[in-house]
């Protein structure tokens, strides 16, 4: 039985307040009943406005503006990665991360294996989830469409929770298969994960989502900081994003 269209589109675009776990994964994989997923409370009024009162063109214009604001954090995140690279103890990982940052700044879309080669960088100091600095967490929150206006402990907790939910969704989506999603579901899923999919053809969105899932489903819980940063690494130079 296929994924519930209405509930997935809602969850994929706005995220979920549901605590991740086997229940969420099982329901998403099997589609046995309607998922009780809702938008985060701080986004709910905006969701109602978009869904019920705005024309399709207004919705697209809003997503473009919102993504432009979100994209301002990309340069902050890349600068931070460059700044902390010398603090990584492994010289080989230092070189690889430096090369990755240079390529992205030159407009090159990174390969999946190049991103996965960095997974050890994001387990411990300075890029592990528990070692991220406050200003960097604020930039990451904006990139994830989350408000940055919280104390650092709450920012860290919510980034962890939000990334874990996406990781759970990714595993379920990989089992279900991207081919089972409608065009709107694919575009919504891409947008949540950092890609401004409003002007990208459906087939390219499916391809990008497939790349994301290959990375996400390879990562362990201790490596989820890489998935959080992947919002920038994988989306910055993808086809059609430099509008």
UniProtKB/TrEMBL annotation:
<dbReference type="Pfam" id="PF07766">
    <property type="entry name" value="LETM1_RBD"/>
</dbReference>
<dbReference type="GO" id="GO:0030003">
    <property type="term" value="P:intracellular monoatomic cation homeostasis"/>
</dbReference>
<keyword id="KW-0496">Mitochondrion</keyword>
<dbReference type="InterPro" id="IPR044202">
    <property type="entry name" value="LETM1/MDM38-like"/>
</dbReference>
<feature type="domain" description="Letm1 RBD">
    <location>
        <begin position="69"/>
        <end position="243"/>
    </location>
</feature>
<keyword id="KW-0812">Transmembrane</keyword>
<dbReference type="GO" id="GO:0043022">
    <property type="term" value="F:ribosome binding"/>
</dbReference>
<keyword id="KW-0999">Mitochondrion inner membrane</keyword>
<protein>
    <submittedName>
        <fullName>LETM1 domain containing 1</fullName>
    </submittedName>
</protein>
<dbReference type="InterPro" id="IPR033122">
    <property type="entry name" value="LETM1-like_RBD"/>
</dbReference>
<keyword id="KW-1133">Transmembrane helix</keyword>
<keyword id="KW-0472">Membrane</keyword>
<dbReference type="GO" id="GO:0005743">
    <property type="term" value="C:mitochondrial inner membrane"/>
</dbReference>
């Amino acid at each position: 039985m296929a994924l519930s269209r209405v509930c997935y589109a809602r969850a994929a675009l706005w995220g979920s307040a549901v605590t991740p776990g086997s229940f969420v994964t099982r329901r998403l994989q099997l589609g046995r009943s309607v998922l009780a997923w809702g938008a985060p409370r701080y986004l709910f009024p905006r969701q109602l406005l978009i869904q019920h009162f705005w024309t399709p063109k207004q919705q697209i214009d809003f997503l473009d503006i919102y993504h432009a604001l979100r994209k301002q954090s990309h340069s902050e995140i890349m600068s931070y990665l460059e700044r902390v690279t010398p603090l990584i103890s492994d010289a080989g990982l230092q070189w690889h991360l430096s090369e990755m940052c240079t390529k992205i700044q030159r407009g090159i879309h990174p390969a999946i294996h190049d991103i996965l080669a960095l997974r050890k960088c994001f387990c411990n100091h300075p890029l592990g989830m528990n070692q991220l600095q406050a200003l960097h967490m604020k930039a990451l929150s904006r990139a994830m469409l989350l408000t940055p206006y919280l104390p650092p402990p709450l920012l860290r907790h919510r980034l962890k929770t939000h990334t874990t939910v996406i990781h759970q969704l990714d595993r379920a989506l990989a089992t279900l298969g991207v081919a089972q999603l409608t065009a709107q579901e694919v575009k919504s899923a891409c947008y949540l994960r950092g890609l401004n999919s409003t002007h990208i053809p459906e087939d390219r969105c499916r391809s990008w989502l497939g790349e994301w899932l290959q990375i996400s489903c390879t990562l362990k819980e201790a490596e989820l900081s890489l998935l959080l940063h992947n919002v920038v690494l994988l989306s910055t130079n993808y086809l059609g994003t430099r509008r």
